[in-house]
DNA sequence: TCTGGCACTCGCACGCGCCGAGTGCCAGGA
DNA sequence: TCCTGGCACTCGGCGCGTGCGAGTGCCAGA
């Protein structure tokens, strides 16, 4: 129903508005893009686009700006993901390769994403529930006090204190450690509960309490949504939001401080590729004037976590999507190596 | 040289300005505080205070606002740290007690501080170099690939990958693990280098390369300023900075993103009690219009790290100092228990 | 040394008018 | 049928002048 030219006009509006941050009028459009028609024609097209809800006027007698619906159409049908250039790809790789441990990988990824996209970057730590167990370690700190250390194949390490109901001998400890590891090492975390179910039965009556306590601590660690962690960065980029930003920036900062909000935000994107949520498509009210570009990453083919950026709806979608996708790819590689 | 009343006037100015965020004039001062003198007298005092550089006028014929020097005098001589109330103290304790591991303690502390002070909170992880070793763990991931896990008495856990120059047997590994722990467990990290110096000599020639590699990885982990980590939160509070904030907020956000800047900021405060750095006293330019209130915390008497808040120079110093001190105290307790 | 009085300053809010970018509509032409 | 040039209209932004009021400095008198 929308003619080819009208789509072209929409694309031109989005591109100009993203560049100039100012409402774009019919005359400016014809001057900067050779659409082959006069401003008057463009005006008619604009009226039609406005009728359909793809663009809007901030005030009468101003230029047009894209609506969320307009950006949606642009992303879905008018824009191609812009691939990174070779030097950019090399830079990404170099930057990530120096990482010394998982925290470092995540921290570097956040900084990298923030720099590349000039937006706020969010990186989720590899999910425990979607990883496999590399090793479980038990340390005796005091006669009735243990430390449980959990290590995943993605390099993530979690530790928990365990207060035992009764003192636990060094031999029992070694036994438990060995049995635990032989059962769960290399297995997926989601399988752990059933794998250790009958473990207490292998121990003396007096040790069973402690073994159960250790196991329940282990299982608690895996409870979804407790185990998720993430890191954000590049919040200084929010200051480039626009001239009217003082009122925009606060709800965004507030939303970014809520782990739950961000996790939901990333979690909602089920798409295997890059997902874009524009303006009001985001459930959280504070993020109604932002877009979220996210993608899963993982060491193998499977995604173990998500990463993405949060920026104004008026953003360079092709470039941002390209950067996000590229970074996710390289982070996956780095994790596979470690 | 400054009479008692003039100090009283300064105190009144600081208090009013902190409350109203607006320059305060002589008339308003006499109305809100019973100084026992007329506005005209206060005006003379103000002129004197301005002469000495404690207060300033934003423009001719406006009220006065305190200068950095004025705040400094206020903090040093006119203000007492405001202790937390009993319910507040209970709330702090309750909030921190639910923490499940060190990351959680730090995360909760950041949120707590940000909420209590309504400012940006910064919490440094317990320094490795100022902690003692609880345990060193070595795991074999592949024939020539180890994972080194370092656990401190404050609950901090660091892990590193080690690529061995030669395959390393399971018995050698157990041997190294045992020797390493018997030497360093319970010792201060700063002593570790000398304690492990001659360790390679106890091993067969073929294993020495690997042992050395492990040790140098261990030592690298301890290099100061690489090993420091921190967490920040409450950046949304920056939006309460003032009406002129758009230009203020960016450099602050940028400074907060630089780990190094923050570490220096906290590191500079050598005072055993609460330290306050006001405005231009902060070396970093972006923080010239902010004040930093920080204090050391630790499980015992000794500080293992710092925490604090960053806010506008126009802040409630007594209250902020009280909150920071109280939180530090409770975090110390929590760490001592774990 | 403090106080009341007084003239002065100056930032700010308000109202006004101009300018110009941008629009919608319409009649004429391909 | 679709495009184009022309035209009248709208309205936000900007510069300017004005009045107001909070606040000041200074001075003479208690």
Written description of the protein model:
2 copies of one chain form a homodimer. Chain A is 47% helix and 17% strand. Chain A is of the alpha+beta class and 338 residues long. In chain A, the strands form 3 sheets. Chain A has a 5-stranded antiparallel beta sheet, sandwiched between helices. The longest helix of chain A has 21 residues, at 317-337. The radius of gyration of chain A is 26 Å and the shape is elongated. The N and C termini of chain A lie far apart (52 Å). The A-B interface holds A 100-103, 134-135, 137, 139, 141, 147, 149, 151, 155, 157-161, 229, 233-236, 238-239, 245-246, 249-250, 253-254, 256-257, 338 and B 100-103, 134-135, 137, 139, 141, 147, 149, 151, 155, 157-161, 229, 233-236, 238-239, 245-246, 249-250, 253-254, 256-257, 338. The structure holds a DNA duplex (30 and 30 nucleotides).
Please tally the helical runs of chain A, counting DSSP H or I stretches of 4 or more residues.
12
Identify low-pLDDT runs of chain A: none
Please report the two chains with the greatest interface, counting residues with C-beta closer than 8 angstroms to the partner's C-beta: A-B, 34 and 34 residues
Computed CA radius of gyration of chain A, to the nearest angstrom: 26 Å
Number of strands of chain A: 10
Summed over residues and divided by their number, the pLDDT of chain A gives a mean of 91
């Amino acid at each position: 129903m929308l003619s080819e030219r009208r789509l072209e006009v929409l694309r031109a509006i989005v591109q100009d508005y993203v560049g100039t941050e100012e409402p774009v009028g019919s005359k400016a459009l014809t001057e900067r893009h050779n659409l082959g028609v006069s401003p008057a024609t463009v005006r008619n097209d604009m009226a039609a686009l406005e009728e359909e809800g793809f663009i809007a006027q901030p005030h009468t007698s101003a230029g047009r700006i894209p609506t969320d619906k307009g950006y949606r159409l642009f992303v879905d049908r008018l824009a191609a993901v812009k691939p990174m250039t070779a030097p950019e790809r090399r830079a990404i790789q170099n930057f990530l390769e120096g990482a010394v441990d998982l925290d470092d990988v995540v921290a570097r990824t956040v900084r990298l994403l923030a720099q590349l996209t000039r937006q706020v970057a969010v990186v989720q730590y590899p999910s425990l529930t979607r990883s496999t167990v590399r090793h479980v370690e038990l340390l005796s700190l005091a006669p009735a006090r243990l430390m449980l250390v959990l290590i995943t194949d993605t390099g993530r390490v979690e530790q928990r204190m365990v207060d035992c109901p009764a003192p636990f001998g060094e031999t029992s400890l070694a036994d438990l450690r060995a049995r635990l590891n032989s059962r769960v090492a290399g297995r997926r975390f989601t399988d752990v509960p059933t794998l250790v179910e009958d473990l207490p039965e292998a121990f003396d009556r007096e040790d069973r309490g402690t073994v159960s306590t250790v196991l329940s601590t282990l299982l608690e660690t895996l409870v979804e949504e407790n185990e998720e962690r993430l890191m954000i960065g590049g919040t200084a980029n929010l200051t480039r939001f626009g001239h009217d930003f003082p009122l925009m920036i606060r709800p965004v900062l507030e939303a970014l401080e809520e782990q739950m909000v961000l996790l939901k935000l990333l979690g909602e994107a089920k798409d295997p590729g890059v997902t874009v949520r524009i303006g009001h498509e985001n459930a959280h009210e504070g993020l109604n004037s932002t877009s979220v570009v996210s993608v899963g990453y993982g060491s193998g083919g499977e995604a173990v976590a998500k990463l993405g950026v949060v920026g104004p709806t008026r953003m360079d979608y092709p470039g941002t999507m390209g950067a996000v996708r590229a970074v996710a790819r390289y982070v996956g590689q780095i994790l596979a190596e470690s």
